[in-house]
Every structure is written in C-alpha cells, then in structure tokens.
Amino acid sequence: MATGESHSVREFVEAAFAVVNLPWQKLVKYDPAFDRRTEPARLVGCSDKIRKILGWKPTGTFRELVHEMVEAELAAIDSRR
User: Fold this and answer.
1) What is the pLDDT of residues 2-48, one digit of tens each?
2) How many CB atoms lie under 10 A from the CB of residue 79?
3) Rounded distance between C-alpha atoms, residue 51 and residue 1, angstroms
C-alpha cells in the first residue's frame, strides 16, 4: 500500500544499517555513474481510494518497516545456516 510519503535510497540505507548498528558510510560505495541526469516527476503512491473504501491507513512508520525488513532478512539468513 502507498502512504503518500517519499523516501530516498540514502534514507533507506541509513535506516537499514541503523538496525544492525553498522556505519553505512564505510560500507556503501557511491558511484555517480548511476545518478540520473534528470530526475523524473516525484514518484509517490496514492492511497486515497483504499482509505475511502476500506478505511485503511498505515499502522507503522518508514523506519519501522525498514526495521522489519532487515530483521526478516537476518532471520532468513540464520535459517539457512
């Protein structure tokens, strides 16, 4: 579901590395070759329809979602050992 919020890749990386208490600046390499010359229009999902019809609204924050994703990935890695 969309929340109407927009977050950068950097915000995602910062939040993900914070979960495992690692310094992302030392472990992530930035390559300007992957920069977009012209950024497209702001890409943000709209949840108006599901909010109106079903009364849905987000129950967590962006950081909570990233935390859950990292924890699930760590659990999956542990289960393969």
Assistant:
1) 888 888 889 999 999 999 999 999 999 999 888 877 777 777 888 88
2) 7
3) 10
Is 53 buried (19+), middle (13-18) or exposed (0-12) by CB count in 10 A?
Answer: exposed
Calpha distance 2→65 (Å, rounded): 13
The answer to whether 17 and 24 are in contact (CB under 8 A) is: yes
Residue with tokens 């939040």: 15
Judge if pTM exceeds 0.90. no
Tell me how far apart the alpha carbons of residues 61 and 72 are, in angstroms, rounded to a whole number.
Answer: 17
